[in-house]
Amino acid sequence: MANSSTATRRNRSKGRRHPLATVALIVIGLVSTGGAYALFTGTANAETQQASTASKQSSIEEGKKLFASNCATCHGLSAQGVTGVGPSLYGVGAAAVSFQVGTGRMPLANQGPQAEQKPVQFTAEQTTALADYISSLAPGPGIPSSKYTSGKGDASTGAELFRINCAMCHNVAGAGGALTEGKFAPALTGVTGEHIYEAMVTGPQNMPVFNDKNITPAQKADIISYLKYLDKNPSPGGFELGNLGPVAEGLFIWIFGLGAVVGVTIWIAAKAS
Q1: Residue 74 in this model has a pLDDT that exceeds 90
Q2: Which sites bind heme c 1 (predicted)?
Q3: Which range (77-86, 143-152, 236-245) has the least confidence?
């Protein structure tokens, strides 16, 4: 009986799993699952990146064709510029293209003191293609993020920054103003936040460049918020006279206000006589 009991225990011990067997199975399962997931996601990411690269390259090729047929006359076939006609576009970045083409200033209609805004000649997709092509030639300012152009910054801080950096040309209310030699600072009413930001980082026409060391992206967002505030809020003082400032207002009072007083005086004198 003793021998039979001992044999039974030995058989049971032989059929029992080792305590670490379960742990080993779990580790093997996790490694297998993780490896399969990594392989799948890695392949998916590679395919997505490859598709994105192909799409970008296609856009660049399309932009190159558009440039050759619309812009090369002034800027050269390789965007190297043409002396006395058009500057080199190397390093201007996608932001400059988006601003100049997106506002209709380019292609230039005729030579003058500065390029004036006119109806846009290209679709949004074509503008993007041109921007992709120019940015592929040399690094430059890119298209700004929507978080800086949405007009959700601090308008009061933006108003102070605008008065310090921009009002001397664009007027404190963004109404624009005359410069020298037939040039002018355009009005900023109704301009998109993206184009305002792009103008600050590229310095079109006579405008200086405000890089991130001069005015940070967050401060640019505040300036845009101030201008958007002006778009949404009419003058609280009544008729704004084009926001041209105290000279225009004084001239209005001098001509119409004083003229009315003189007219009423003459009318009273005529009645009295």
Answers
A1: yes
A2: 71, 74-75
A3: 236-245
Average pLDDT for 105-129:
91
Q: Is 166 annotated as a binding residue?
A: yes
- 71 annotated to bind ligand: yes
**Residue 74 among known ligand-binding residues:** yes
Please, which contacts does 244-248 make with residues 24 or more away whose CB atoms are closer than 8 Å? 244/171, 244/175, 245/171, 245/172
Q: Is 169 annotated as a binding residue?
A: yes
For each of the domains in the chain, give its residue range(s) and CATH number, in order of start.
53-140 (1.10.760.10), 144-253 (1.10.760)
* CB 32, CB 98: distance < 8 Å: no
Give bridge partners of residue 178 from the DSSP assignment: 184
